[in-house]
Design brief:
The complex is a heterodimer of chains A (176) and B (311).
Chain A lengths: L1 E4 L1 H18 L6 E5 L3 H17 L5 E3 L31 E9 L3 H13 L4 E9 L11 E5 L7 E5 L1 H4 L3 E5 L3
Parallel strand pairs in A: 2-3, 2-4, 4-5, 5-6
Antiparallel strand pairs in A: 1-8, 7-8
Chain B lengths: L12 H19 L12 E6 L5 H12 L3 E6 L11 H10 L4 E6 L4 H5 L8 E7 L5 H15 L10 E5 L6 H12 L3 E5 L15 E3 L2 H4 L5 E4 L15 H8 L3 H5 L6 E3 L12 H4 L6 H20 L5
Parallel strand pairs in B: 1-2, 1-3, 3-4, 5-6, 5-8, 6-7, 8-9
Helix pairs in contact in B: 1-5, 1-11, 2-11, 5-6, 5-11
The chains are: A alpha/beta (176), B alpha/beta (311).
């Protein structure tokens, strides 16, 4: 197990991503942050509060559970459903920023795009991730990346967050 | 979770809570603009009904369709079953057609368990009511409804006092409910005339009362049961009027219920017999909501049985 990002580095990466989101969207007008549970939801909340700090007003944010849209459901035992909370203003005409902890095969994001299309028609969909570890199986890329982490597919990347793991850390574990 | 849902007895407490929590998330999605989920696309679910049913069959059908599964309805009337085909041959036929799950209602207790036999069916079997044995999905939706009203949609039902009133003898709903409510920590009192309590009732983990008025002031919920005339070949009570006086939820009894207590009925109701029109339509009646919750809970059951890798 080796630590690739410590608490300070995670905070700085998220702060940079917050600024990049604002720069790319020319402010916080009509942006909507949607975190993918579990850890993406916590990250999205953190980014939302950082943007609020920078811009001086709240930005809409919520969570989007993609379990029911996954294409690998039959490959594993049933997964517990997580919560989906979309602000009542909806996603139509919004610049939706999906937030997740690790970008790997891209299949979670594909499921998220399907889930989004059921909810409405956003003006655009962007993707922010804390770690991009490569090995994509679909033509999907992130717009905002905390850290590009070249990995081997036998390794495992764990993102630990205060909200559920009692520390902020990204660690990489070689498969035994 | 097991592969089949045959009886509440097969569920652990954590299985039961997992179904309730899953249903809660599905309810949250269904309240929004999304009515249909792609989760079970390409799966085939057969509704095999040997007994009449409207709400349970429609409820399972709606649940399966909202998860994008293909549904085949198969009722005993007008099929080869009325020509005398055996349950085994029916099962083999469904197996050959590639059914991923069979939802079965049968007049004989134990028929779903027989169908789940390894050599007959590879798919999941879901008991939608078998004889006077069990009706697990009804019990789960009842607990889901109770938890929403009395426990803020989370955790178990510890400390909740429920009275189940009426025809316990013929009621698979009562049997499943007693098992599930006890599993979730609730306290159950059965209220019925002597003649409508099953043999060996003293072995059940419940309180028994013959006086509805005695129990009424202490409950958080009353579950009224339908008087099942179709299963009554003998005389179980002197007259309908007398039954209604002793064990019906009349207007007077409704007024004496504690504040916040809810009225439940699995349907179909005999208005004027076990429940008065006033009670059925009261503000604290959750009977219509039970039907809505039925679809949600059955979606959760189908998702948990069919949504993942098959064992």
């Amino acid at each position: 197990m080796s630590v690739v990002l410590n608490a300070g580095e995670i905070a700085r990466a998220l702060r940079r991503i917050s600024h990049e989101i604002l720069e790319h969207n020319k402010g916080s007008q009509s942006i909507l942050l949607l975190g993918i549970p579990t850890r993406g939801a916590f990250l999205s909340k953190r980014i939302a509060s950082m943007i609020e700090e920078i811009e001086g007003h709240e930005v809409p944010h919520g969570t989007l559970d993609v379990t029911m849209y996954r294409d690998d459901l039959r490959l594993r035992p049933p997964r517990a459903l997580m919560s989906t909370e979309i602000p009542i203003s909806g996603i139509n005409e919004m610049h939706v920023i999906l937030v997740d902890d690790v970008l790997y095969s891209g299949r979670t994001i594909r499921a998220a795009l399907d889930a989004l299309s059921e909810l409405g028609r956003p003006a655009s969909v962007q993707l922010a991730v804390l770690v991009d570890r490569g090995h994509r199986e679909l033509p999907i890329r992130a717009d905002f990346v905390g850290k590009n982490l070249p990995t081997s597919s036998s390794e495992r990347v764990h993102v630990l967050l205060q909200e559920c793991d009692e520390s902020d850390e990204v660690v990489i574990e070689a498969q035994s | 979770m097991n592969k089949h849902l045959l009886s509440i007895e097969d569920l652990s407490k954590s299985d039961a809570i997992q179904i309730l929590d899953t249903a809660e998330e599905i309810a949250r999605i269904s309240d929004g603009p999304v009515k249909k989920l792609p989760t079970l696309r390409g799966r085939t679910i057969v509704n095999l009904f040997f007994e009449d049913s409207t709400r349970t069959r429609i409820s399972f059908e709606a649940a399966a369709k909202r998860l994008s599964a293909d549904v085949i309805n198969f009722s005993a009337k007008g099929s080869s079953l009325s020509k005398g085909e055996s349950l085994k041959d029916t099962a083999l036929t469904l197996q050959a057609m590639g059914a991923d799950a069979v939802v079965i209602r049968h007049g004989s207790s134990g028929a779903p368990a027989r169908l789940a036999d390894q050599s007959w069916m590879k798919g999941s079997v879901i008991n939608a009511g078998d004889g006077t044995h069990e009706h697990p999905s009804q019990a789960i939706l009842d607990s889901f409804t109770l938890r929403r009203h009395l426990r803020d949609s989370a955790g178990d039902l510890s400390g909740i006092k429920v009275a189940i009133v009426g025809d316990i003898l013929h009621s698979r709903v009562a049997r499943s409910n007693v098992l599930l409510l006890k599993k979730l920590g609730a306290e159950v009192t059965l209220v019925a005339p002597h003649t409508l309590l099953p043999f060996g009732i003293d072995q059940w983990p419940v309180n028994i009362s013959y006086d509805f008025d005695d129990v009424l002031p202490h409950v958080h919920a009353v579950m009224m049961l339908r008087v099942q005339r179709e299963r009554m070949s003998e005389l179980f009570f002197p007259s309908e009027r007398e039954y209604s006086r002793g064990f019906g939820l009349t207007k007077e009894r409704l007024d004496r219920m504690p504040k916040g207590a809810v009225v439940m009925h699995p349907g179909p109701m005999n208005r004027g017999l076990e429940i008065s029109a006033e009670a059925a339509d009261a503000v604290n009646s959750v009977i219509v909501e039970q039907v809505t919750n039925g679809v949600t809970v059955r979606m959760a059951i189908l998702y948990l049985l069919l949504g993942g890798m098959s064992a």
